[in-house]
Amino acid sequence: MMLVILMGYDFSVISISIYLLLNLIWGTIGHLNREFFPVSFDRFFVGTTRFHNQHHLDESKNFGFYTSIWDRLFGTYK
Questions:
Q1: Whole-number Cα distances in Å, 11 to 2, 3, 4, 19, 25
Q2: Out of 38, 71, 75, 78, which could bridge 61 as a Cys pair, Cβ 3.0 to 4.6 Å?
């Protein structure tokens, strides 16, 4: 899906690089097994380390990466 968007629109190499860097940082934080966000962030639909660890405990739940919105909408939120 990302490739289709990139082919359809002009984009900046800098903006894509920043996105990939943020994606790397967020993915690393999600796998550190240490929570950096307070519990209250769960109600803001943020995909926290706690949220992601639930996916590793039950692979049929919590597929979201940045947010939990889609998991809540489609019933895969735990």
A1: 12, 12, 12, 12, 21
A2: 78
